[in-house]
């Protein structure tokens, strides 16, 4: 490799185009081989840098999202869940609701696919360039309570506050005390009309009051969450139980 190429590679690195820098010799070789015009050469180089950059950003967003597992919507078997249609799943996948800052509430008993759908939509959003975070209600409360003295919690809450989509899994699994309810309200208020929230819960909003405790805070939270919302009720039998693996080596048969 001649020294001019190396110098140019260094210039590219200075300009924070490391991907192009690494590939430059290959680009020059191809340009000669295929007799690229100046315009073609420049276009190849720039689209390569942009593509690599977006892939890296998507990787970073995926890491920050902190999904407990990764399952796509394509892996969701729609015929196993009669309470949602493939058309609805397709519509959700288009993410118009996210662009319009709509919230989604996924309700239903354990094992019906609430978390799976939430993660699937989260993955879709990441692919389309959105910033996403996932936390269970328990983790979220922990973050809120420890933000004053744990930098780690501060960092994660900052990401949550900056996200386009905030997934809160298993809402109201536990009763909240006054301080927790207050902290939770402030978070929801912060996200209100700036981001979309996906909430999953095994209890409907009419029961959230008991768990939040304070009537005023409950109303204020519900006001914001339900202002622009799509509620999806999943009702089928638990997929988890139906398809649990058995220690006897065969899939269990539902009774
Ligand atoms: P929930 O959050 O409603 O309790 P999950 O989404 O965690 O339930 O689902 C439990 C398990 O069953 C997960 O591994 C999930 O991927 C799987 N599952 C549930 N419903 C379906 C479905 N319709 N198609 C494929 N897998 C499913
Ligand atoms: Mg779940």
CATH topology of the largest domain: Rossmann fold
How would you classify the quaternary structure?
Answer: single chain
Largest sheet: 5 strands, parallel
Q: For the record, what is the CATH homologous superfamily label of the largest domain? A: P-loop containing nucleotide triphosphate hydrolases
Query: What are the secondary-structure elements, in order, as H or E?
Result: HHHHHEHEHHEHEHHEH
Strand content: 5-15%
Notes on the protein architecture:
With 255 residues, the chain is α/β, with parallel strands linked by helices. It has two domains: 5-64, no CATH class; 73-238, P-loop containing nucleotide triphosphate hydrolases (Rossmann fold, 3-Layer(aba) Sandwich), CATH 3.40.50. It is built from twelve helices and five strands. Helix 9 (178-191) links the parallel strand 3 (165-169) and strand 4 (196-201). Helices cover 55% and strands 10% of the residues. Strands 2-3-4-1-5 form a five-stranded parallel sheet, with helices on both faces. The structure holds adenosine-5'-diphosphate (ADP) and magnesium ion. Adenosine-5'-diphosphate (ADP) binds at residues 71, 75-77, 80-81, 108, 110-116, 200, 239-240. One of its GO terms (molecular function) is ATP binding.
Q: What keywords describe this structure?
A:
single chain; 255 residues; alpha/beta; Rossmann fold; 2 domains; five-stranded parallel sheet; 12 helices
């Amino acid at each position: 490799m001649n020294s001019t190429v190396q110098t140019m590679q260094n210039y590219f690195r200075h300009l924070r185009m490391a991907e192009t820098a690494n590939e430059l010799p290959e680009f020059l070789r191809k340009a000669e081989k295929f007799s690229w015009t100046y315009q073609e050469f420049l276009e190849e180089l720039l689209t390569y840098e942009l593509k690599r950059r977006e892939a890296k950003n998507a990787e970073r967003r995926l890491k920050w999202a902190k999904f407990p597992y990764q399952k796509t919507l394509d892996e969701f078997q729609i015929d196993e869940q009669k309470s949602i249609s493939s058309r609805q799943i397709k519509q959700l996948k288009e993410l118009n609701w996210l662009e319009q800052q709509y919230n989604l509430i996924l309700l239903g008993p354990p094992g019906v696919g609430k978390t799976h759908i939430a993660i699937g939509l989260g993955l879709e959003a990441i692919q389309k360039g959105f910033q996403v975070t996932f936390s269970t209600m328990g983790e979220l409360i922990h973050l809120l309570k420890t933000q004053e003295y744990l930098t780690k919690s501060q960092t994660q809450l900052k990401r949550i506050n900056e996200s386009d989509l905030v997934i809160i899994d298993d809402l109201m699994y536990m009763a909240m005390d006054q301080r927790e309810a207050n902290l939770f309200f402030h978070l929801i208020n912060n996200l209100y009309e700036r981001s979309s929230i996906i909430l999953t819960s095994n209890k409907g909003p009419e029961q959230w009051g008991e768990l939040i405790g304070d009537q005023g805070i409950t109303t204020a939270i519900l006001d914001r969450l339900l202002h622009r919302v799509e509620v999806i009720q999943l009702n089928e039998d638990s997929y988890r139980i139906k398809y649990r693996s058995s220690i006897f080596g065969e899939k269990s048969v539902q009774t």
